[in-house]
Amino acid sequence: MSAYSLQPSFFAHEDILICLDVDPILDRKAEVPSSRGRLITNMECTRSALYFFVHAKHAINPDHRFAFCTLSKSSISWVQREFSSEVDSALAAILDISADSSSHEHPDLTQLFQIAAREATRCNTESRILRVVLVYCRSHVLPEHHWPVDHNLFTLDVLFLCEEPDAKNRRQDVYDALVDAVGDVSKYEGYVIRCLHGLAFALHGYMCVLLSHPQQRCLQDAIDFPKSLAKKLPRYN
After folding, report:
1. 94-129 pLDDT per residue, tens
2. Does residue 233 have a pLDDT over 60?
């Protein structure tokens, strides 16, 4: 039997563009209190998850870099345009993001993808890869885009903060539209994670999935995480 050998391969550092959908729903109080018993807003919950993500990615590889923008109406607004590996500047950018005052009915992701494509071209010359992490929070409005499906220059991950199902929202349709968008634009395997608004503990668990490097990923359907705590309870005879 011949010895097993693993061929060396190159894994690029990431430039990660985090885009937060700033719909007014982020200013609502979460239905579940925090660990300290205080009702926090959806924005506070989201900021906490993004803090965790930035700290964890930096601990894994200090050469990963971050930039930040927001989605409102159909336009993208920069919060921190220059990609930086400085954790303090990333945390300041997250803190600087606030929810918009009015709701917008037609979120168009085309501009975000145009920006990502330009940044991905730059990353390629620097032997880096570009990843977009979109935090989308509207359960009643389908996102749309007008982007060529054969232009796979970057990887798109989506964290979909959804509401409880009711007669008004279209959260399954929104989720399906986000899955289609990831399939249209992603170079490597992109993930779409769905989590209820305000569930801070669950949100941090789902963010662990997004820590994975795009070049090292399995298919999302093969992921068995986070696991239900109910399935982990000890059984006694």
Report:
1. 999 988 876 666 788 999 999 999 999 999 999 999
2. no
Which segments of 9-120 are extended strands (E)?
Answer: 13-21, 65-72, 75-84
- What one-letter code names the amino acid at 147? W
List of long-range contacts for 29-35, beta carbons under 8 Å, 24+ apart: 29/198, 30/197, 30/198, 30/199, 30/200, 31/197, 31/198, 32/198, 32/199, 32/200, 34/200, 35/200, 35/201
Amino acid present at 179: V
Q: What is the pLDDT of residues 27-55, one digit of tens each?
A: 887 665 555 666 778 888 899 999 999 99
Largest CA distance in the chain: 67
Average pLDDT, the chain: 85
Q: Report the alpha-carbon distance of residue 117 to residue 189 in Å, rounded.
A: 17
Residue 137, sorted as left (phi over 0), alpha (psi -120 to 50) or beta, turns out to be alpha
The span from the CA of 205 to the CA of 233, in Å, is 18
What's the pTM value of the predicted model, to 2 decimals?
Answer: 0.87
* Rounded CA separation 98/25 (Å): 11
